[in-house]
Amino acid sequence: MKKHPRESPSVTSAQHDFQDLPGLVDDEGISYPQWAGSEEEYKIMKQEKKSRPAHPKSSGSTVAAKPKGKRKEAPPLHYSSRGSKRAALEVAADDMLMTTAIGTYVDEWRSAGDTSDAYWSTWCQLHRAHWDGLRRPAHPPVPLIPLFIHVVGALLKVGGYRSTKNYMSAAKEQHIDAGGEWPASLQLAANRFHHSTLRGIGPPRQSQPLNFSLLLLLSFGWLPIVPGGPCNTIAIVVLFTMFLLREIEGALAERGHVVLDHDQATVTWSLPASKTDPQARGCTRTWGCTCITPSSPAQECPYHTMATHISWMEGHFSTQALDPGFPLFPDEQGGFVTADAMVSLVDELAIRTNEPLEDKHGQRRFGKHTFRSMGAVFLSALGIELLKIQMLARWSSHIITHYTRLAPLKSITNDFKRAVLTAEAKLKTQGGGKDKHKQRPAKPKSITGTDKQKIVDSLKKDLRKATEEFQELRAMIDRVARECRPRRFVQNRKSLITHRVAIGFEEAGLQARTICGWRYAKADAIMLADPPSVRKQTCDTCLAALRATLK
Fold first, then answer.
1. Hey, how many other C-beta atoms are within 10 angstroms of the C-beta on 366?
2. Residues of the domain holding 543
3. Do 130 and 95 belong together in one domain?
4. Do 49 and 129 belong to one domain?
5. CA 27 to CA 342: how far, in whole Å?
6. Which DSSP state fits 133?
7. How many domains does the chain have?
8. 336, 71 in Cβ contact below 8 A?
9. Which of 153, 173, 198 is the last residue of a domain?
10. How far apart are CA 397 and CA 386, in angstroms?
């Protein structure tokens, strides 16, 4: 078995290559000194790393570091217009620069907010709690064997862990980095690990929305309402909701990301890199003035809220707020707001609107995506098309159907009142032209049969529209359910005979077979989720009862 680089401190010059990049860092994240001639030289390189640039300046490529004070989750941005061969060759010819370049390259194997180390730490704690050296031998966590995987899987399952696949991925990475192989036996153990730990776990917790309309009526002021929280809470509520932002997207936003066009009364926001944007390309979203009467700005108008917020920010932080790298939503000291402070802000808003923080099962109701879900519910309740909301929120999944599943029906009461008022207005208009010159005693007006029918028709039309939207949402949910359900039927593409799976590929690998004994893993077959509907294409052994009912 290949040894970890930490176990081989003496390295010859012939080994100075790129054949084993996982060996460039040890378990603590410290670059291995094989790029230096000795331990002393390596320590000198580490001291000089902070004072020397990672790359020489060139016209083709520039590197932007994280602004001071930015949260550790902020992704590094490397702006590059075109590649520079000269810069790459200069680094290759300088061992100091090469060491720094390798360090940067290795550091960015993972994202800034990667939590693999925490998963692996928990895995090791559970492993050592069982293999404690007292009741049984103290085996090291790696190399993995199926028994080690099943022991930790049992402990994760009894502990109620949900993201067990992340723990398995971290353990697999550590196993391979240590020089271990990943044979079929370990893959089978990993599959069984996933099946057991995820079975019956139930749906995940989704951040619930707050009452946006009620929050607009509250007064917050400029100062933070929670320790370490952002200034100007009402701007947070309005802008995070209208732009459907995740907590980290708004907290990491900078002054230079926003452009105000006062002539067109629009605000354009270049949103920061998200979890689905690893290359930091980003995208822009624009809101115009939503005020009915611009002379008296509405509280929920994104344009006026952003303009007022920036004006207040410049008044409190003077010239610092003009820096493009200055936080768009700073704390009281002008720094970036932490994730814990943002969550505390959401909890405080829930308390001020008399919302319970936990549900009947003891789970938190609100979290980092509360503003995002609040925007989806608010906009859909106004009648905004779901596709537009999905594009505004940059959602690539159907999670929007979870947040907006009841919103279309919330407006049915307002639709009814609007129809009644419209009918009454028509009655007054029609009655105003009769007997203009005769003064008659006012009599209470009653709605005629024709007018009642118009109101009923209007209500039926609105109800039919709401029903269609509800059916559309249900169809989307059903489609997702069909796509995600297990495929337990397999069809022979040559004979077109459909069989029922007895042991799946994820359980037995190449030994997977159907009830009739056909081993389909190496055959020309296709997996299906639905049973066959044609008698001739139905296996008489696997699906005898179904075949008897078909014609």
1. 22
2. 489-549
3. no
4. no
5. 32
6. S
7. 5
8. yes
9. 198
10. 12
CA dist 332 → 161, 231, 317, 335 (Å): 37, 6, 10, 8
Quick one: tokens of 323? Answer: 């820096």
Same domain, 244 and 324: yes
Looking at the structure, tell me whether residues 98 and 217 fall in a common domain.
no
In a shared domain, residues 28 and 134 = no
**Which amino acid is located at 419 in the chain?**
A
**Residue 300 and residue 238 in contact, taking contact as beta carbons nearer than 8 Å:** yes
Q: Same domain, yes or no, for 174 and 248?
A: no
The token pair that represents 521 in the structure block: 């893993």
Q: Does residue 442 sit within a domain?
A: no
CATH number, domain of 332, equals 1.10.443.10
Same domain, 261 and 397: yes
Q: Are 242 and 375 in contact (CB under 8 A)?
A: yes
- 304 with 335, same domain: the answer is yes
Closest of 273, 275, 305 to residue 287, by C-alpha: 305
Report residue 175 as tokens.
């196993």
Structure-token pair, residue 84: 């520079």
**Is residue 204 a part of any domain in this protein?**
no
Q: pLDDT tens per residue, the chain (551 residues)?
A: 433 333 333 333 333 343 343 334 344 444 444 443 444 554 554 455 444 444 434 334 433 444 445 555 555 666 566 788 888 999 999 999 999 999 888 887 777 667 888 899 999 999 999 998 899 999 999 999 999 999 999 999 998 888 888 999 999 999 998 889 999 999 999 999 999 998 877 666 667 788 888 888 888 888 999 998 999 999 999 998 888 888 888 888 888 888 898 888 889 888 754 454 544 446 788 888 888 776 777 888 889 999 999 999 988 888 888 888 899 999 988 888 888 888 889 889 989 888 888 877 777 888 888 888 888 888 877 777 767 777 776 765 555 555 555 455 555 556 666 676 777 777 777 655 444 444 455 555 555 566 677 788 888 888 888 888 888 888 888 887 777 767 788 999 888 999 999 888 778 888 888 999 898 888 888 888 888 989 888 999 999 888 888 87
User: Distance between CA atoms of 133 and 509, rounded to whole angstroms?
Assistant: 35
Vertex 380, ends 375 and 386: CA angle to 5°?
A: 100
Beta-carbon count within 10 A of 526 CB: 12
In a domain, 74, yes or no: yes
Q: For residues 402 and 380, give the distance between their C-alpha atoms in angstroms, rounded to a whole number.
A: 12
Cis before 143? omega within 30: yes
Give the pair of three-digit tokens for residue 100: 């720094």
End-of-domain residue from the set 55, 74, 107: 107
Q: Looking at the domain assignment, is residue 134 inside a domain?
A: yes
d(C-alpha 3, C-alpha 261), whole Å: 61
Q: How far apart are CA 519 and CA 507, in angstroms?
A: 13
For 500, phi then psi, to 5°, come to -105, 135
